[in-house]
Structures are given as C-alpha cells and as structure tokens.
Design a protein that fits this description.
alpha+beta, binds zinc ion
C-alpha cells in the first residue's frame, strides 16, 4: 500500500515523497492500515517500490502485494492522472468492506480498476465483482500480462482464472481481455475469441503502448483477418474428428445424442459450429451447443412450419439445467446478457434463410441447408459454404 495512518492518526502517502523523505519517515514507525487498523511496516528496498506492508494479514485484501502489483497500480494511476481523470488509489468502501486499487470517473460514471497479478480463486473475484456492482461501481479487472501465457498459432489456453477477465468494458463492445505489463509499460488486448473447445480458444492479440488513452484503448477497430476462418475450420474439424476418441462422459452424452438422432459427427451440417460474436461466453464447445439448437429446430420438430420462441427458450433452459450447455464465469456476466451468442446464432440462421423470426414464432425452412455430400470431403463442403456465407458471418461481428 502507498497510504497509511501515523501513530497520531494523520493520513500519509508515499506517492509524492523522495527516497530520503521516505527514509526519514521510517523513523516514525509504527504505521497503521486506514482500513483494518492493522500494523504496517514501511518497506524500502530495491525490488519493490517503497510501500507499507501489513505485519499480519489484512482482512480487507489478504493476498498482499507483489512488486508487479505495486508498480502496476502506480503506473495505471499515473496513466489516468495524465488523462485528467482524477483517479484515487486504495479507496476503501466500508459498506462492502472492499479496497479498490483505483477509483476514477469516466463519462460521469464511477469505475474501478483492479490490477491482478496473482491467481486468487475465481469465486473470490466473483464475490468482489458482485459487491462492486451492488454498490453501483463498474469494476474492470486487468490481469498481469504474464498470466496470459503463450499464444501460439493464435491459440490461447484459457483457464477459469483468465475467463473471469473477459469483459465488455466500457459497454456494448465485443468481449475482450485487458492485460497490463508494468515492466514493459504496455497493455495487451485479447479479442475475437473463437473457442474450439472448453479450453482452446482462437484469439487475436494486440500490444498497445502506455501513451494510448483510455478512450483509444477501447475504440480500436479490430477487423477479422480472412485467414482466421481457415484456422477456425482446421481446429474445429480436428476437434470434431477426435470427438469419438475421447473417453469423457460429457462428450459421450453429446455423442449419444447424435446417435439417437441418427447423425454421425462428420455428417453434421456446415451450419453447425459457426463462429458468432460473444461465443466465448459459453463454455460448452460451439459445435456441441449449436448442434443442440440446430437439431431442436430442424430435427426434433420436423414437419412443423414454425416453432414458438418460447419453446426454444424452454428447451435452452432445460439443457442448461441438465449441464449440456454451460456458461463461463466472466466479469462480463454481470453486465450483459449471456444468451447473446445464441441470439447471434439465430441471426446467422436467419441470414442464411433457414429460419425467419416473425413476432413470437420462428418459421423454419430446411431447403437451403448445406448438406455434407458423401462425394465431397468436408473441406470441400466447408470451402463452398464459406464462399457463400463469409459475408453473412462477418456481418455478425460489425
Ligand atoms: Zn489492512
């Protein structure tokens, strides 16, 4: 921490002090935590910025502070100062018993930055996020870039911890993860998430300099490169072909479901497993959740001209309850509708003429379906499908 109380109850901060002033201050020990009253030690060393550390654990934020956390917090604070956003550091909210790294107002609304360098349990991140929202603050969790891990061949291996950092900050934007690297003084944006499986996600990333403003950081135009769809196809097909080989109960449930419907995994129509925006919000692999919806519309209700939207909603609730469709726990979940990817998938089906939404009914039309022809390979079918529908998929993202 950079703030403390002296023995006489005076509030002090190390932020604007010189090293010799800090050494002078050290003689005035002990110091106290302004939030829990616990005793603090003033630490001046070479590895970390001068700071106050709890002698015992602080009940408000028990995880302590690493060198990266201290310098990251200070850099993010200075970054907002330079943009005249008047940030306040280490602000304590007694009502919810939480201490925010940084509080600032942007477009007249209160936001909180939490810079996370250690993998604390996701349910703890969830608890703190919930409390901030209840107190009408919008938190933005930023992870240390080292926590992202290596992205090779555009594939990010996403953990539960990383999933939580998926945000739509500031609002209505596509999901992204914001990371910061204090030593390199750079931000990293991860975006255009296209999950292949629960853990493997095709992503794009961008390193952004410290000089960039908050406004600029969230308004970058991020076109989807053409080759992305080929990557997507290769990874998704690989996943599909390996599907029957894994001995995993949840996947077996899906395979059983396919066999009951008389469909071999490689004979799934091309309209299943389409990249749609927000699909990262669903943890179940895209081919699985889209198949459930697809077969509900076109197989289970075969012969009907239309299906009531309410029937689809009931079906979705049922498969969520049964654990066949699972959502990821993200900080996004607090701000937006997690059913967005499903809505976008329905828009796609409408764009390719398979369904038509009219008031509370979904009219179905299977005559335009791209069936996998037995003479053609899936690659050929896919290329044909992509040629015809690339624009329709892309327009979902803009
Ligand atoms: Zn404390």
């Amino acid at each position: 921490m950079f703030f403390a109380l002296t023995n006489s109850g005076k509030s002090i901060t190390l932020l604007k002090m010189t090293v010799s002033e800090i050494h002078q201050l050290k003689k005035e020990q002990p110091f106290y935590c302004p939030h829990c009253n616990g005793e603090l030690i003033l630490k001046v060393g070479s590895k970390k910025l001068p700071h106050f550390a709890h002698k015992y654990i602080c009940p408000v934020k028990p995880e302590g502070e690493t060198a990266a956390h201290l310098s990251g917090k200070k850099l993010l604070h200075d970054w907002l100062v330079a943009q005249q956003l008047q940030p306040k550091m280490e602000i304590y909210f007694p009502d919810i018993n939480q201490r925010a790294d940084i509080l600032f107002y942007w477009k007249k609304k209160p936001f909180i930055f939490e810079f996370q360098c250690s993998s604390i349990p996701v349910n703890e991140l969830e608890r703190r996020t919930k409390a901030y929202h209840q107190a009408n603050f919008t938190p933005l969790w930023i992870t240390h870039q080292d926590k992202i891990g290596k992205i090779s061949n555009h594939i990010l291996s996403i953990t539960d911890y990383l999933s939580f950092f998926i945000t739509n900050f500031p609002q209505n934007s596509e999901p992204m993860i914001l990371a910061f690297h204090p030593e390199k003084r750079q931000f990293q944006l991860i975006y255009h998430f296209m999950p292949i499986s629960t853990r493997k996600v095709l992503v794009q990333q961008m390193n952004i300099g410290y000089q960039t403003t908050l406004q600029q950081l969230f308004s970058f135009q991020k076109p989807i490169p053409q080759h992305f769809f080929q990557y997507w196809y290769i990874y998704a097909e690989k996943w599909l072909f390996h599907l029957p080989l894994y001995n995993n109960a949840r996947r077996n449930k899906f395979l059983t479901f396919l066999y009951q419907n008389n469909i071999h995994p490689t004979k799934l129509p091309m309209e299943v497993g389409v990249p749609v925006p927000y699909m990262i919000l669903i943890e179940t692999p895209p081919i699985i959740w889209q198949t459930y919806i697809f077969l509900f519309l076109f197989n289970e209700n075969r012969g009907r001209r239309y299906i009531f939207l309410k029937e689809l909603t009931n079906y979705l609730q049922k498969i969520v309850k049964e654990g066949l469709l699972r959502f990821r726990l993200t900080q996004y979940s607090f701000l937006a509708n997690k059913y967005m990817p499903i809505k976008k998938y329905l828009v796609f089906l409408e764009n390719v003429g398979l369904v038509k939404l009219k008031e509370d009914k979904l009219f179905v039309n299977t005559s335009r379906m791209t069936n996998v022809h037995y003479r053609k390979t899936r690659q050929q079918s896919f290329n044909q499908f992509l040629e015809k529908n690339r624009g329709k998929i892309l327009q979902l993202f803009y």
